[in-house]
């Protein structure tokens, strides 16, 4: 982290450490003022060359939020770092596991831990004595190295939170097996299942490091909000940005307080502001209007909401580049806003008898699919019971999401081959040119440790998985996970959206499991490992952006501690809730603990891809998305060769087009239309007209809005919702009386009437 001192003229000047004070040619570096640093960040400095020797990233987003200097003398492996890291891991993981079983849920992100840990860490630095303690006669434990809580300690605490805070897929598997499939699960099985998934994710992250983190174009925009907050809390620089003199930290506090106060309106006092579908309020029984403009089971055409959690449901639009957000919006517009209603109102796949949007499966009477009616005591499908009951029907948006997933898989392969290998320029010259954007040669020297430790972690995880599922199926799931992992993260490094490769995962496992629902749910957990390796790769990008040593990363085993503690905490909370909360996971649970992700996992376990998408089945037409997805990047590639100066063609990115809507359902159009509008305003208009302001405040604004909403939502839940304090008035009940909220289909069935095929298999 760069140090700054104030000159006589009032400008903040960067101090370079002695070992960084000279250029490669031996000439001393000229001091850089804060205003000059801002010019460098937005690319207006005529004296800066973006070369390896200059240590400047060629990307504006990185330059604006990540310092290009490092102080290797800053202590990292300290008592205060370990203590705070463990405490935040336990608290955040427990709270998030508690909330994950409720809908709507509240998630504590690493931004909250990053925010709260700073004043606590600063207090520890001031209060603890400066001393070392000798442990077992061999190791020195640094209680407090100095009275300054530095950015590297802060980064490690944040990374431990990032690794552990997200819900483990293993917990949703346990919910599906214990609650819906009525299968007993032992504590040892639950822990081994979770640990095997976590460790395999660690291994994938290590093996992917040199391909996903080191190339300078792998920016990972979602990490830049954290990087901006680090700069806000630890940097003393305060350049003037388009007339704005307020510091980043003060700006962060003001927005945080405002976001916290405002969220009480859409979050509790007037919840209608969250889903502001005033068209549906005016005509609550009009099916067409509710289908198109509704925000529960409708498409959500209108970009009207006053709830930041709705806008940032997929990811904060402030941290996503506008070109990526535009591709996501185009995917939603073409497929879900246009194709979905056409299929729905023409009753394709019998979808008119179901809600337009939803993530549930239905039977031939339009009721939720009851898989217990077709399973035997071992959890395997009974063909006779299946034919006597009903085939599975999906809402049109749910079915299309699988088609989008098929297109993503083939599209990614074509895109990577064309743009990452055929068109990629040769890396020549300086040995660090293929490294991360900050060009740290040390990362090239130690990067092999990632691969070795990653491979070892993979072997350990396979040994654990052997104790929990079928050995022959572990190979299938792990190989599928590795295939999805490399493709998924090359996409995520360019834009922080969720992908719908999990659709392919579900069908792949459904075909391999052949009706074994227990095996299916377990293997889905193994194949979902790219989600966890994404969190590990995000942590690795944190290390790149904060100059942390990879040797420290593996030597201290911080990642293992965070994963193990997180696993134990999640299992403890899960076991307690399943045993102590009344009517847990039922659809009418009074406190809304309906286990939404467990329900999705349960439904996925009975989808059996061969019964839905194989040739001759109802949704087999969606298999055409494989060749469509593979062909579109090829067509665009050759058109760009013909028109190399076309800015429009440069912005077309087919993998993001298909993958960006991976959260739909349960997301609706409101989450995409509002995100596009916000991205257009901030990342296109303001970035173009007020680049200084954007470079200084944009990512700080995102971090403050997210943190304010998270803190307010937690307080509202524990202080009001959980104790049962309700606020019943028109503003909180106006949505419940609409066709959209009730999920009324376009075609309603009379009593004892059914729809669909007369014969199925």
From TrEMBL:
Cellular component GO terms, alphabetical: membrane
Chief localization: membrane
Stretch list, region Disordered: 1-28
Membrane topology label: Multi-pass membrane protein
GO molecular function: oligopeptide transmembrane transporter activity
Keywords: Membrane, Peptide transport, Protein transport, Transmembrane, Transmembrane helix, Transport
TM spans (from-to): 81-99, 105-125, 191-212, 251-283, 326-346, 392-418, 621-639, 699-722
Subcellular location, record wording: Membrane
InterPro entries in alphabetical order: Oligpept_transpt, OPT
Domain of life: Eukaryota
Keyword set includes Protein transport: yes
GO biological process: protein transport
Family according to the record: Belongs to the oligopeptide OPT transporter family.
PANTHER family found in the cross-reference section: ISP4 LIKE PROTEIN (PTHR22601)
Protein name (database record): OPT oligopeptide transporter, putative
């Amino acid at each position: 982290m760069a140090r700054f001192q104030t000159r006589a003229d009032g400008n903040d000047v960067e101090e370079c450490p002695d070992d960084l004070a000279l250029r490669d040619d031996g000439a001393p570096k000229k001091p850089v003022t804060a205003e000059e640093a801002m010019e460098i960040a937005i690319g207006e400095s005529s004296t800066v060359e973006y070369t390896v020797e200059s240590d400047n990233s060629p990307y504006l987003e990185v330059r604006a939020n990540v310092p290009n200097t490092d102080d290797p003398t800053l202590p990292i492996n300290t008592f205060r770092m370990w203590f705070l890291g463990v405490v935040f891991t336990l608290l955040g993981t427990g709270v998030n596991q508690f909330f994950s079983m409720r809908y709507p849920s509240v998630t504590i992100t690493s931004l909250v831990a990053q925010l709260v840990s700073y004043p606590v860490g600063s207090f520890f630095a001031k209060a603890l004595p400066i001393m070392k303690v000798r442990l077992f006669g061999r190791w020195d434990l640094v209680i407090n190295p100095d009275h300054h809580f530095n950015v590297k300690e802060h980064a490690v605490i944040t990374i431990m939170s990032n690794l552990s805070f997200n819900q483990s897929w293993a917990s949703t598997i346990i919910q599906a097996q214990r609650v819906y499939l009525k299968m007993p699960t032992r504590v040892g099985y639950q822990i081994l299942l979770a640990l095997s998934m976590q460790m395999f994710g660690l291994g994938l992250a290590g093996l992917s490091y040199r391909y996903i983190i080191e190339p300078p174009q792998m920016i990972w925009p979602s990490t830049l909000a954290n990087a901006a907050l680090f700069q806000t809390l630890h940097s003393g620089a305060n350049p003037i940005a388009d007339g704005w003199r307020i510091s980043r930290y003060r700006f962060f506090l003001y927005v945080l307080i405002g976001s916290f106060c405002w969220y009480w309106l859409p979050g509790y006092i007037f919840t209608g502001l969250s889903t502001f579908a005033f068209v549906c309020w005016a005509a609550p029984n009009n099916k067409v209007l509710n289908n198109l403009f509704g925000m529960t089971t409708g498409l959500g055409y209108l970009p009207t909401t006053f709830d930041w959690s709705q806008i940032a449901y997929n990811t904060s639009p402030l941290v996503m580049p506008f070109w990526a957000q535009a591709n996501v919006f185009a995917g939603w517009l073409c497929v879900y806003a246009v194709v979905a209603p056409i299929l729905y109102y023409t009753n394709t796949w019998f979808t008119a008898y179901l809600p337009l949007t939803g993530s549930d499966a239905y039977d031939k009477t339009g009721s939720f699919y009851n898989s217990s009616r077709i399973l035997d005591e071992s959890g395997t499908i009974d063909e006779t019971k299946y034919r006597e009951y009903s085939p599975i029907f999906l809402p049109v948006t749910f079915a299309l999401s699988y088609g989008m997933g098929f297109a993503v898989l083939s599209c990614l392969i074509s895109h990577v081959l064309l743009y990452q290998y055929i068109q990629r320029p040769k890396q020549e010259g300086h040995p660090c040119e293929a490294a991360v954007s900050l060009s740290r040669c040390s990362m090239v020297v130690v990067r092999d440790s990632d691969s070795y430790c990653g491979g070892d972690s993979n072997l350990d995880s396979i040994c654990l998985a052997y104790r929990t599922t079928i050995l022959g199926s572990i190979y299938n799931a792990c190989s599928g996970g590795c295939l999805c992992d490399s493709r998924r993260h090359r996409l995520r490094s360019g834009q922080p959206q969720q992908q719908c490769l999990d659709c392919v995962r579900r069908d792949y496992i459904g075909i391999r499991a052949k009706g074994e629902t227990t095996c299916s749910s377990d293997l889905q957990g193994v194949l979902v490992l790219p989600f966890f390796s994404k969190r590990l790769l995000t942590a690795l990008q944190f290390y790149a952006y904060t100059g942390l040593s990879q040797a420290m990363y593996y030597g201290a085993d911080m990642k293992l501690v965070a994963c193990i503690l997180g696993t134990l905490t999640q299992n403890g909370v899960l076991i307690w809730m399943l045993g102590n909360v009344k009517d847990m996971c039922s659809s009418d649970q009074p406190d809304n603990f309906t286990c939404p992700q467990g329900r999705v996992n349960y439904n996925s376990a009975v989808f059996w891809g061969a019964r839905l998408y194989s040739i001759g089945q109802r949704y087999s037409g969606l298999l055409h998305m494989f060749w469509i997805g593979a062909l579109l990047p090829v067509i665009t590639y050759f058109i760009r060769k013909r028109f190399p100066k076309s800015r429009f063609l440069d912005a077309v990115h087919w993998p993001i087009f298909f993958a960006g809507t991976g959260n739909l359902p349960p997301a609706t159009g409101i989450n995409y239309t509002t995100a596009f509008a916000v991205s257009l305003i901030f990342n296109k208009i303001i970035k173009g007209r007020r680049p200084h302001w954007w470079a200084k405040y944009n990512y700080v604004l995102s971090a403050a809005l997210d943190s304010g909403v998270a803190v307010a939502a937690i307080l509202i839940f524990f202080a009001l919702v959980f104790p049962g304090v309700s606020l019943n008035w028109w503003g909180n009940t106006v949505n419940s009386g609409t066709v959209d909220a009730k999920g009324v289909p376009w075609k309603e069935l009379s009593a004892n009437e059914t729809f669909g095929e007369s014969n199925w298999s």
